[in-house]
Amino acid sequence: MNRSAFYHLLQRYSDGTCTDEEKKLVEQWYELLDDDHEAAVSNEEIKSTVDRLWPVIKEKTLPQAAEQFPERPVRRIPLYVRWISAAAILTAVSFGIYWIAGNSHRFSSFEENVVTEDLTQTINHLSTPDTIYLPDKSMVVLEPGARLYYPDSFALAKREVYLEGNAFFKVTKNAKSPFYVYSNNIVTQVLGTSFFVKTDAATQDVEVSVRTGKVAVYENESQGNSNKRTEESTGVILKPNQKVIYNRNDGHFRTTLVDVPLPLLPNSQQEETVTELNFVFEESPISKVLACLENAYHIEIITENDNLGKSLFSGDIKGQNLYDQLEIICQSIQATYEVRGTRILIKGDN
Q1: Which residues contact 284 (CB under 8 A, 6 or more apart)?
Q2: Is residue 245 a contact partner of residue 223, using CB atoms and an 8 Å limit?
Q3: Looking at the predicted structure, is the pLDDT value of residue 108 above 50?
Q4: Which InterPro entries match (predicted)?
Q5: Which helix (H) or strand (E) covers residue 302, if one does?
Q6: Which domains does the chain have, with CATH numbers?
């Protein structure tokens, strides 16, 4: 009720037109004045009564707090929104715990293996490569700063070593006892061959390149993240003059050719490279020249079209590395070459 409504109520009370309830209410208000004042009967008396009584009514009966601080409407959040929010928070917390737990395990596993197996440790403190020989007579060339852990004697079923840094391995062949190199969180497995293992100090990416024989390279299951495994990240088989770069961030392996491919003996079972082959050609079809290079380096070389293979080549390219040999051959037939994965493609319009 406001002041105007109160005035009209007093008028009806004076006119005798109030309901019994309104009459009772007005008489209660009159009692708030604590005097013997008679009920107003004229307009002037009613106005006077309103002037005196309304402040009292307002002070003693109306809710002051409600007038000063009107109630703010409550914004209700739908139930499904609250469920989605709770699920998002739970997922974020779970992922954080999993990531922390996974990484702490990944970084500790290498050290745990080294400590629990009580291995011998060799560190190259020199500024030049240092050669050591393992119990099975395998040779390891440690680059400066590299560190190798290995047992005093290998088990019969397998030979295992742990590498930090870069090293070249020439492993004594033993078909009954595979040789394993654990470096960072990948494993290089061989029977008897020679290969490099290098770790990028900045990115921790690992590169394995093969000089002779075959090697298998894959993630160490005890340290890798099994959830991010894909067909591309399960590992690769490398042949001579091939290398793989393992990306530590995404767990993928990228295969390509080594920076300087070396010629190998014609018999692929041989484990030695050759220093020089007689690459002298006289009016020889390009297809024959490329076949000689394939056999020498054990690298597949393909032409973009058959006409390229029919072109003739004359020249002496012995003593050159593979990429220089390809440059000379391609210039003679106005072609180009590019490395695609572990193969070489010859491109041209002939």
Answers
A1: 312, 313, 314
A2: no
A3: no
A4: FecR, FecR_C, Ferrdict_sens_TM
A5: strand 300-303
A6: 3-60 (no CATH), 119-220+233-257 (2.60.120.1440), 280-348 (3.55.50.30)
